[in-house]
Design goal:
single chain; 401 residues; alpha/beta; OB fold (Dihydrolipoamide Acetyltransferase, E2P); Rossmann fold; 2 domains; 8-stranded mixed sheet; 11 helices; binds S-adenosyl-L-homocysteine
Amino acid sequence: MAEQVNGGLPVCPVNKKCGGCQLLGTEYSEQLKNKRKTVAGLMSGICSVDPVVGMDNPLHYRNKVNAAFDIDRHGKHISGVYKAGTHEVVNVESCLIENEKADAIIGTIRGMLKSFKIKTYDEDTGYGLIRHVMVRVAHATGQIMVVLVLSDPILPAKNNFVKALRSAHPEITTVVLNVNNKKTSMVLGNRNITLYGPGFITDELCGKKFRISPSSFYQVNSEQTEKLYKRAISLAKLSGKETVIDAYCGIGTIGLVASDKAKNVIGVELNGDAVRDANTNKKANNTTNISFYNADAGEFMERLAAEGEHVDVVFMDPPRSGSTEQFMDSVAVLRPDRVVYISCNPETLARDIKYFRTIGYKAKTVTPFDMFPYTEEIECVASLTNMMGKKALATVDDDEE
Ligand code: SAH
């Protein structure tokens, strides 16, 4: 779709109400410069900062689209995002950063509600059926999953509904009914009923297959994720002989991509569902040299350190709050040659790089990646090198006894 432009800048009719794209009024090259400046400010006196790795085409990058459903004052069906800070739905026909096929599918569903006599769910009364529609598009394979989030497991005339939807969008490969009958702001409920296809989609990232179920975590910008992971793997300088940790591993993406170039990989992740997906992905790729553990990364690393494990490289990709001293102190004992730190929050990255310096690990440079153009989010990767040889600073046993 051709974008509406205003002096070279894309235009969005609902930008003010939605609040999703904070940087819509800033030219893309300027956004990248500003993001670099922000990171450089945080890293001042710590290490240098590379230019931001941006996108050639920074629009429509989101591979997952969620739309809330409601009716407007005139009783017309609407779907889109919640107005910032409220539960009032803003109707979105098409969004500048969302996948265009996903938006078109959501529009088709909105148009089908009347003839299928499907009512939108009312949060206050609990009356009505359709709450949300989530569409996920696999970047490499083109497979598309539609998840209808309903307040009830029964969708009247479901076969005709799916048939009509698929005839409008033959590219849909699976349709899932998700039941959410709770008073909650969570989009998805716990129960999934597959209405068409296998109930999941499969994508490929850096040559590995990933199975994506309705609730699986998966990076939303596939093109940039691939660039980021490639950089992370190259910073790790793997030769095939290394024992590698993938800490905060999610569904195992980084570890699986690294596994071809390592002797063995150990993944650790707190979320049990993500670990289950990681094991599914391990099987889907016939990978045998990787194991996933469901644990707190700090506690897990402390145990490895206490057991005197040998580790050559640590990948770490913690949540926004960053890592913990327990984790980093254990790295100091395990003494890998390199730590590759992937971060979605440059503030906690700066804090943790500073702490790493006190335990003998130094970063030369940080590379920001623009995973979320038109928003203020910044992702970074940094490689930290062991400056003290294999000698440990302290042993974990000393602290414990
Ligand atoms: N590396 C993955 C996921 C990164 S997101 C990817 O690129 O896809 C950060 C992950 O850290 C999430 O999956 C979250 O569940 C996990 N996490 C949060 N706190 C944790 C902790 N204390 N120990 C282990 N994992 C944790």
